[in-house]
UniProtKB/TrEMBL annotation, chain A:
<protein>
    <recommendedName>
        <fullName>NADH-quinone oxidoreductase subunit N</fullName>
        <ecNumber>7.1.1.-</ecNumber>
    </recommendedName>
</protein>
<feature type="transmembrane region" description="Helical">
    <location>
        <begin position="54"/>
        <end position="74"/>
    </location>
</feature>
<keyword id="KW-0812">Transmembrane</keyword>
<feature type="transmembrane region" description="Helical">
    <location>
        <begin position="403"/>
        <end position="426"/>
    </location>
</feature>
<dbReference type="GO" id="GO:0042773">
    <property type="term" value="P:ATP synthesis coupled electron transport"/>
</dbReference>
<feature type="transmembrane region" description="Helical">
    <location>
        <begin position="361"/>
        <end position="383"/>
    </location>
</feature>
<feature type="transmembrane region" description="Helical">
    <location>
        <begin position="20"/>
        <end position="42"/>
    </location>
</feature>
<feature type="transmembrane region" description="Helical">
    <location>
        <begin position="94"/>
        <end position="113"/>
    </location>
</feature>
<feature type="transmembrane region" description="Helical">
    <location>
        <begin position="226"/>
        <end position="252"/>
    </location>
</feature>
From TrEMBL, chain B:
<feature type="transmembrane region" description="Helical">
    <location>
        <begin position="6"/>
        <end position="31"/>
    </location>
</feature>
<keyword id="KW-0813">Transport</keyword>
<keyword id="KW-0830">Ubiquinone</keyword>
<dbReference type="InterPro" id="IPR000440">
    <property type="entry name" value="NADH_UbQ/plastoQ_OxRdtase_su3"/>
</dbReference>
<dbReference type="InterPro" id="IPR038430">
    <property type="entry name" value="NDAH_ubi_oxred_su3_sf"/>
</dbReference>
<comment type="subunit">
    <text>NDH-1 is composed of 14 different subunits. Subunits NuoA, H, J, K, L, M, N constitute the membrane sector of the complex.</text>
</comment>
<dbReference type="GO" id="GO:0005886">
    <property type="term" value="C:plasma membrane"/>
</dbReference>
<protein>
    <recommendedName>
        <fullName>NADH-quinone oxidoreductase subunit A</fullName>
        <ecNumber>7.1.1.-</ecNumber>
    </recommendedName>
</protein>
<keyword id="KW-0812">Transmembrane</keyword>
Length: 547, 125
């Protein structure tokens, strides 16, 4: 009887259009989708043998419009999820959709010359980046495990293809295959987790999962379904941990980063990681806020998983990166280490509802990391030799002296990744470690402070391999001559990355305000977190009034 | 948890076993037998499933056809329930909305078809 009623209601819901205002929630995603569809139609009429630069610029402009639309929607966010509980329209989602668009645009700018040097100048490349960005935008906004998973796949599948885009290069094919097999496996684990959560709670909506888990846990002791839910939480976490490349799930990272086309690596190292963190925050903060599931300081909840992953990622990423002689491989391990720092921030900020505002450190770090990382990959993809990109440290010999601009950009990016002032990376690390220490001081738990100390020590070790890049660029002799791929696109991307890295490092006030606004406007949270957010809102308004 | 609640399920399992067993049994005892090589092969869309991969290379165009087929098959799967429920939605006054959503879906698929056509996916040689 109830089932019949539910299915009738469901049918009615499907037949009823959403409210007019709700359509704002899909505007950024819709813009990028329309750009992609228009792209197909333009590419169909592309004249063979002519360069596709204009298509690249077209997609960059489209992604720019997508990012700008988040800006226009910034003051028009909604509290309730839209589209029958499928998508949120909040500043958190808008922040990440803008970040995905910017990252995609910068990666596309670096691409045309690289593709041409590999004789793979095809329109599909840009199309796949655009579709992946669409998935990212919807993933950051999703309010339901189903919309989340669909967006997750829309994001991932184009990237599997992009990793193998240089199909004549066997390493690229290998990268694609490895990424696809492992990625599909981790997506399957995540889907299994979603199924278990659905089995335990009877719903896929994040807020309703939180509610039903609360009822399952309370009352007559622990319900049998609660054990299922715990396993589901673990599996969903592992799915995200794969995408952010945190340590037990990092095996694919070095091989995939080495084999894939360099601009694609820049894209997947930044945007995918950022969006996976967005999904992680959304799912775990909204759906699993129960103390039993959350754990903390070895109560064996998801905070403890994140804690362990953070510690392992920071140490292993930094230590193994020391041993690499391939720059892309080194950056892969460095991206694992960055995932560790981000997880440290995640652990600290979500250990207790009252620290929720510290999540702005993660957001700031992601922005800093995006510009720094794409900057260094843009420089790497700028140089090539007979279709080969710069890869080993020795290949970098003297490049900094022969091409001072590129050397400067690489220097800024590398300083940012290592966390040396006055770059954005320094402030990002500073905020992450500060939030961990702050939480540690307030809870009197040594665990967070200990983890922060571990983070600082491992990032000091990281300085060695980052500076090795600059030593080779300026002080070592040239082994093989690499020529730059003359093209405006990568230059624009490099200048944007370098300027933004310095700007965020020197004048971070506006960016920090944006990250704080995004976190304060995070929708769907439990009442305990909402109280923290209200306090944060008041503090922010007071500060803005004082200025 | 009452066993009585599961009686329909148990019955279903028993009937399923009985039907399958009965069919196999009947085929085994009453069916005429004149085996040929093709009949003894496992059903694998007409290709030999147990051969070296190099010996049974076939054109990538089969995949193109298969993918197009899945695409348009799914299209019908979407369109038919939509057509069935359109009257209800029109009765509720959302007929145009319902129509616009489906038109959007078909437009996106059509763009895919245009792309496939331009890439030569519809030509056999």
């Amino acid at each position: 009887m109830t089932m019949q009623l539910l299915s009738t209601l469901n049918t009615l819901a499907m037949l009823t259009p959403p409210q007019g205002a709700e359509f704002a929630a899909i505007v950024p995603g819709m813009i990028v989708t329309l750009v992609a569809l228009a792209f197909i139609l333009i590419d169909v009429f592309h004249r063979k043998g002519t360069p596709r630069d204009y298509l690249a610029y077209f997609s960059v402009i489209g992604l720019g419009v997508g990012a700008a639309s988040s800006w226009y929607l910034w003051d028009g966010t909604l509290e309730a999820p839209t589209f029958f509980g499928m998508l949120y329209l909040d500043r958190f989602a808008l922040f990440f959709s803008a970040l995905a668009c910017v990252s995609g645009a910068l990666a596309i700018l670096c691409s045309p010359a690289v593709l041409r040097s590999h004789r793979m100048d095809r329109g599909e490349y840009y199309l796949l980046v655009l579709f992946s960005v669409v998935g990212m935008i919807f993933m950051a906004a999703s309010a339901d495990l189903l919309s989340l998973f669909i967006a997750f796949e829309i994001m991932s599948i184009p990237i599997y293809v992009l990793a193998g885009f240089l199909r004549e290069d066997s390493r690229s094919a290998e990268a694609s295959m490895k990424y696809f097999v492992l990625g599909a496996f981790s997506a399957a684990l995540m889907l299994y987790g979603i199924a278990l959560i659905y089995g335990a709670t009877g719903t896929t909506n994040l807020e309703m999962i939180a509610q039903n888990l609360y009822y399952l846990e309370g009352g007559e002791g622990q319900h049998a379904g609660f054990g299922l839910a715990m396993l589901g939480v673990l599996l969903i976490f592992s799915g995200f941990a794969f995408k952010v490349a945190a340590v037990p799930f990092h095996i694919w990272t070095p091989d995939v980063y080495t084999g894939s086309p360099t601009p694609v690596v820049g894209f997947m190292a930044t945007a995918v990681k950022a969006i996976a963190f967005a999904g992680l925050l959304r799912v775990f903060v909204v759906a699993f806020p129960l103390d039993v599931l959350r754990g903390g300081f070895f109560g064996y909840g998801w905070i403890d998983i994140a804690f362990a992953l953070a510690a392992f990622s920071m140490v292993l990423g930094n230590v193994v990166a020391l041993l690499q002689n391939n720059v892309k491989r080194m950056l892969a391990y460095s991206s694992i280490a960055h995932a560790g720092y981000l997880l440290l921030g995640f652990t600290a900020a979500n250990a207790h509802p009252r620290f929720f505002l510290h999540n702005d450190a993660i957001l700031f770090y992601l922005v800093a990391y995006t510009f720094g990382t794409i900057g260094s990959f843009a420089v790497l993809s700028y140089f090539s030799r007979r279709g080969e990109s710069v890869e080993t440290f020795e290949d970098l010999g003297q490049l900094g002296i022969k091409y001072p601009m590129m050397g400067l950009v690489m220097g800024i990016s590398i300083f940012s990744a290592a966390g040396i002032p006055p770059t954005a990376g320094f402030l990002g690390k500073f905020y992450i470690f500060r939030s961990a220490i702050d939480v540690g001081m307030q809870t009197d738990e040594f665990s967070f402070i200990g983890l922060a100390i571990l983070g600082v020590l491992s990032s000091v070790a990281g300085v060695y391999y980052y500076l090795k890049v600059l030593i080779y660029m300026y002080m070592k002799p040239e082994k093989r001559a690499f020529r730059p791929l003359e093209h405006t696109g990568p230059k624009v991307a490099m200048v944007v990355c370098a300027v933004m890295t310095l700007y965020l490092g020197i004048f971070p006030a506006r960016a920090i305000e944006i990250t704080q606004e995004s976190i304060i406007d995070f929708q769907g949270v439990s009442s305990a977190v909402q109280a923290t957010l209200d306090l944060g809102q008041q503090a922010l308004e007071a500060r803005q009034a004082a200025e | 948890m009452l066993i009585a609640n599961y009686i329909p399920l148990i019955l279903l399992v028993l009937v399923a076993i009985a039907v399958v067993g009965g069919i196999i049994f009947a085929a085994e005892f009453f069916g005429p037998k004149n085996p040929t090589r093709e009949k003894l092969m496992p059903y694998e869309s007409g290709s030999d499933p147990l051969s070296e991969p190099q010996a049974s290379r076939f054109s990538v165009k089969f995949y193109m056809v298969a993918i197009s087929f899945i695409l348009f098959d799914l299209e019908t799967v979407f369109v038919i329930p939509w057509a069935m429920s359109w009257r209800e939605s029109a009765a509720m006054g959302h007929g145009f909305y319902s129509f616009a959503v489906m038109a959007l879906f078909l437009a996106i698929l059509t763009i895919g078809l245009v792309y496939e056509w331009s890439q030569g996916g519809l030509e056999w040689d």
